[in-house]
């Protein structure tokens, strides 16, 4: 039997797989660190990027004015804040879903079964 869980954090998020008689398998960013819970959404295309790339370039994303940069989305859950793009409107739940999807994709890429 194995269990998969996600630790959705304000600053970072991570996932772990626990299986009987095996070491825990941790899933975060491409460097093995927790996945930064930050997302940049292009105001024109509505495309989102997240994780370490956005964390390390957050000032550039913010200063460009081209992106909505959402940090600490966990604090925005349950509030009526939205981020409008030309393609769609993002809610805090949408941003949270994006972060979880990134973690899930990472786990699948690394062989989570």
Summarize the structure.
By secondary structure, the protein is an alpha+beta fold.
Number of helices: 3
Helix/strand-derived category reads alpha+beta
The percentage of residues in β strands lies in: 25-35%
Helix content: 25-40%
**Large-scale geometry:** elongated
User: Over the alpha carbons, how many angstroms does the gyration radius reach?
Assistant: 15 Å
The beta-strand count equals: 9
Average pLDDT number: 90
Characterise the protein shown here.
The chain has 113 residues and is of the alpha+beta class. Helix content is 27%, strand content 33%. The chain has helices at 52-56, 58-64, 92-109, and strands spanning 2-8, 12-19, 25-27, 35-36, 38-42, 48-50, 67-71, 83-84, 89-90. Strands 1, 2, 3 and 4 form a four-stranded antiparallel β-sheet that branches. It has a three-stranded antiparallel β-sheet with strand order 6-5-7, with helices on both faces. It has a two-stranded antiparallel sheet with strand order 8-9. A hairpin with a 3-residue loop joins β1 and β2. It is elongated, with a radius of gyration of 15 Å. The model has no long low-confidence stretch (mean pLDDT 90).
């Amino acid at each position: 039997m194995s269990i998969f869980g996600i630790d959705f954090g304000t600053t970072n998020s991570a996932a772990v797989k626990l299986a009987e008689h095996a070491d825990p398998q941790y899933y975060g960013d491409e460097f093995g660190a927790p996945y930064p819970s930050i997302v940049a959404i292009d105001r024109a295309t509505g495309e989102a990027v997240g994780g370490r790339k956005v964390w390390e370039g957050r000032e550039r994303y913010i200063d460009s004015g081209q992106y909505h940069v959402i940090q600490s989305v966990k604090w925005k859950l349950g509030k009526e804040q939205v981020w409008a793009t030309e393609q769609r409107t993002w809610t805090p739940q949408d941003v949270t879903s994006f972060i979880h999807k990134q973690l899930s994709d990472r786990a699948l890429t690394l062989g989570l079964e």
